[in-house]
Design brief:
This protein is of the alpha+beta class. It has two domains: 126 residues, Aminopeptidase (3-Layer(aba) Sandwich), CATH 3.40.630; 127 residues, Aminopeptidase (3-Layer(aba) Sandwich), CATH 3.40.630. 32% of the residues lie in helices and 29% in strands. It has a ten-stranded mixed beta sheet with strand order 4-5-6-13-7-12-11-10-9-8, sandwiched between helices. A three-stranded antiparallel beta sheet has the order 1-2-3. A hairpin with a 2-residue loop joins strand 4 and strand 5. Helix 6 packs antiparallel against helix 8.
Length: 299
């Protein structure tokens, strides 16, 4: 039986233990990540199958709705033995109190079929780091190799970037270019990165030019998967081919480990080309939407 647990009814220690039992587990669904990105989240739980689904919600006026928290790419149903039927049962069990829904499901749920909801395919790209660096680099595009050659005399990659520095660079570069998040979202992002680094799940690498941070990339590492969480580069960093340098550095460091490098989305053409330039493979996940409101909700 699928139960709806209100936030106060969720045993966070149990939740995290259960997530680790799920074959399609993802970093985003840990209780501490949800606590920071969607305070007060609820859950659907089926104790017989061991399946769980976070319900990340907000309130507008007197109505609750489901939303995808900033900085969390995929959520949905996680289970020790996920099946299409199980996923569909969970979606059908979403409580009627949530009149509006716009969430992203994890890639295991890509074959889902549910009446009265909209399912939109989104692109995802990953690169298994299961070969030597030389073998992985042989799969780079001509453009990626050319940009790396241009950057050979650039500043060294450093790992002393603070979350506050990263947030500052991100806010004035990536966030402006892609209209990515509000100030409150950036506050949350900084807190998530701080916590991830503190517990050994996150790291930031970057480039400095004359002492100033000009390019940086944050990775979240958990259960054999490294998520390219956020990145940023200013004009100087772009001149140093910063994102090419940092991505190549990470691939070189973890080549042959079997780690899965998750580029965390590729729905922007330029981002998809960049990821593909390193040999990343396309995968699909779904965005789930429905609107049962008498008026349009502005989030």
């Amino acid at each position: 039986m699928i139960e709806h647990l209100r936030h106060g009814e969720i045993d966070k220690a149990w939740w995290d233990r259960q997530l680790l039992q799920c074959a399609n587990r993802m970093w985003y669904a840990q209780s501490w990540v949800l606590d920071l990105t969607a305070p007060g989240w609820d859950a659907l739980v089926d104790r017989s199958s061991g399946a769980i689904m976070p319900l990340t919600h907000r309130r507008k006026f007197f109505l609750k709705y489901l939303f995808q928290p900033y900085g969390t790419q995929q959520l949905g149903v996680f289970a020790p033995r996920y099946s299409k039927a199980l996923g569909e049962a969970f979606i059908e069990a979403i409580p009627a109190i949530f009149k509006y829904c716009d969430i992203a499901l994890n890639e295991a749920m890509q074959d889902l079929k549910v009446d009265h909801v909209e399912l939109i395919p989104l692109d995802q790209q990953v690169l298994p780091l299961d070969r030597s660096y030389e073998e992985l680099a042989a799969g780079y595009s001509k453009g990626a190799r050319r940009n790396l050659r241009k950057a050979q005399d650039g500043p060294p990659v450093i790992d002393d970037v603070t979350p506050a520095e990263f947030r500052s660079l991100f806010a004035r570069t990536t966030a402006k270019r892609f209209n990515s998040g509000r100030r409150s979202d950036h506050d949350t992002m900084e807190k998530v990165i701080e916590k991830a680094i503190a517990i050994g799940q996150g790291r930031i690498i970057g480039l400095r030019d004359r002492g100033e941070l000009c390019a940086a990339a944050c990775f979240m590492e958990w259960e054999g998967r490294a998520i390219f969480y956020k990145s940023a580069a200013d004009r100087i960093g772009q001149g140093h081919m910063g994102m090419f340098r940092l991505t190549d550095h990470y691939i070189r460091e973890f080549a042959g480990t079997g780690l899965l490098l998750d580029f965390a989305g590729s729905n922007t053409d330029s981002v998809a080309r960049f990821n593909a330039g390193f040999g990343a493979e396309r995968r699909v996940y779904l965005r789930l939407k429905y609107d049962r409101l008498p008026w349009r909700i502005e989030r």
